[in-house]
Write a structure and sequence with these properties.
Elements lengths: L4 E6 L5 E7 L2 E7 L2 E4 L3 E4 L1 H4 L7 E3 H10 L11 E7 L7 H17 L2 E7 L9 H10 L3 E4 L6 E5 L2 E7 L6 E4 L3 E4 L1 E4 L4 H5 L29 E4 L11 H17 L8 E3 L9 H5 L5 E4 L1 E4 L9 H5 L5 E3 L8 H8 L9 E6 L3 H8 L7 E6 L7 H9 L4 E6 L10 H18 L7 E5 L5 H18 L1
Parallel strand pairs: 4-15, 6-13, 7-8, 7-13, 8-9, 20-21, 20-22, 22-23
Antiparallel strand pairs: 1-2, 2-3, 5-14, 10-11, 11-12, 16-19, 17-18
Bound molecules: iron/sulfur cluster (SF4) (2 copies).
């Protein structure tokens, strides 16, 4: 739906109700998958450089437009045209913007009798073909000045700018009064992205985009499986990558559509206990929990992370055993029978990270360690840690993913905060707070798991 803008969005799980506006009017549409390819908004950096737009000081977009229409460049062409470009001197440089600047420089050079200058800090040449093009233009005579320390100073002279700078190589003061000064741009997703972000409750953690910067979300995935983010919607502004994103989105939709509906074991709400507080709706990182006369999880969207079950103040939510998610309290009771003669450590481990490190750390866990593998560290509540102590644990560890790499976005942060609360309780009753330990452990960090167990053993030993 090109040239169509989102003006509102509601719904949970597979239900995505979107208000749309286009040249032909407004409409409300319901989708059960949504691929959003937000258009880019370009904001010239005049203010960042203390410059004012004029006939000779222009944005990259303006230069592109003049090149297209053949409009004069604000100088008499009886002499050689001097064109200066500011590329990432302030506020970073998107590869997509640098590519456009190189295109414009090439077009100017092709038009003949033009000397181009580029003032920059860190060139972003990692994108495909950029390094080669940068070298080619340098060989064709474009001068690149790269600054580490203080950059050039700009002064207005009528509609033109005077640039004073210390040549980083020659270390001499130079002054340039170019015929045109071209200012680079910040690229931003449109404000409408915020409306769609409201459909993903965890989105404040990665605003303004729809995808967290995390390896847990491959390609165009977002925490809400039915919403796929293409290009600028996920913070990628390079048009060269759009095609790959669109292909990834189509594949993701096909994959979603081929998945069997109503997988067993989503979060189940007991309507007799539910107080309709909406805590679960606000906290479900995946937008799977909604409210329609009562709280309910969409079976196709629920990732079985268990965060809602821990946070529900009425203990009204459970994950059925068919989901593969066992009741934590029951597991603690059962494992309590495994008590060894010495001090015992109960370790709640996220199955995506610390749980995998366990397999490498010890082929068979030591006798004094009782691991409980969970879908997400965010599933562990204060009551579970206390219950482990009540069942005879001498120390309790909660180990999840590193922040920014949690598949439930903030599950690991919730786990850290709850463990901190337990440590505060231990302090209040005169027990060493280090006996409750939260630690992030990646799947490839078995040594960190061993060290964490040793730290707990020391805390237990110091107390006894
Ligand atoms: S958190 Fe619990 S009580 Fe609140 S709406 Fe959800 S199920 Fe109901
Ligand atoms: S288990 Fe996780 S994904 Fe499912 S409804 Fe609860 S919080 Fe959302």
């Amino acid at each position: 739906m090109p040239d169509t803008f989102v003006t509102g969005a509601q719904g949970f799980g597979r239900v995505i109700d979107v208000d749309l506006r286009s040249a032909s009017g407004s409409a409300k549409e319901r989708f059960d998958r949504l691929i959003y390819a937000a258009p880019v908004e370009a904001a010239p950096k005049f203010r960042d450089y203390g410059l004012t737009e004029s006939a000779n000081i222009m944005s990259l977009t303006e230069l592109e437009s003049r090149l297209k229409t053949g409009e004069p460049m604000g100088a008499e062409r009886s002499h050689r045209l001097h064109a200066a470009f500011l590329c990432g001197l302030e506020g970073g440089l998107e590869p997509a913007v640098f590519r456009r600047a190189l295109d414009a420089i090439e077009a100017l050079q092709d038009s003949g009798n033009v000397q181009c200058y580029v003032f920059t800090r860190h060139l972003k040449v990692a994108a495909s073909g950029l390094e080669r093009r940068y070298r080619e233009l340098r060989e064709r005579g474009t001068l690149f000045f790269k600054f580490d320390g203080p950059g050039p100073v700009f002064e207005a002279n009528g509609a033109r700018a005077i640039i004073t700078f210390n040549d980083p190589l020659l270390e001499i003061e130079l002054e340039l009064q170019p015929d045109i000064l071209v200012v680079d741009e910040h690229l931003k997703p449109p404000a409408s992205l915020g409306l769609l972000a409201e459909l993903i409750p965890s989105s404040p953690a990665f605003a303004p985009f729809l995808q967290p910067e995390s390896t847990r979300f491959c390609g165009v995935e977002t925490p809400r499986p039915q919403i796929l983010a293409v290009g600028p919607s996920r913070g990628v502004f390079d048009p060269e990558l759009m095609e790959a994103d669109v292909e990834a989105a189509v594949l993701a939709v096909k994959k979603l559509s081929s998945q069997k509906a109503n997988l067993p074991g989503p979060a189940l709400v007991d309507p007799n206990k539910c107080a309709m507080c909406l805590t679960c709706v606000r906290l479900c990182p995946h937008g799977a929990m909604g409210f329609h006369k009562r709280a309910e999880a969409d079976p196709d969207s629920c990732m079985r992370c268990g965060i809602c079950a821990v946070e529900c103040p009425m203990a009204a939510i459970s994950l059925s055993p068919q989901s593969g998610r066992r009741d934590i309290s029951q597991t603690i009771s059962e494992t309590a029978n495994l008590t060894t003669s010495g001090p015992r450590i109960v370790a709640f481990l996220c199955s995506r990270s610390a749980g995998q490190a366990l397999d490498v750390a010890w082929p068979t866990p030591p006798d004094n360690l009782t691991p409980i593998i969970l879908p997400c560290a965010g599933t562990v509540g204060v009551e579970h840690v206390l219950s482990a102590f009540q069942h005879g644990a001498s120390g309790v560890m909660v180990a999840g993913c590193f922040k920014g790499n949690c598949a439930s976005v903030y599950g690991t942060s919730l786990a850290e905060e709850r463990t901190r609360q337990v440590s505060a309780m231990l302090t209040e009753i005169g027990v060493n707070p280090s006996k409750a330990l939260f630690t992030p452990i990646a799947a490839n960090m078995p040594w960190a798991l061993r060290e964490a167990v040793q730290a707990l053993e020391r805390a237990i030993g110091a107390e006894s």
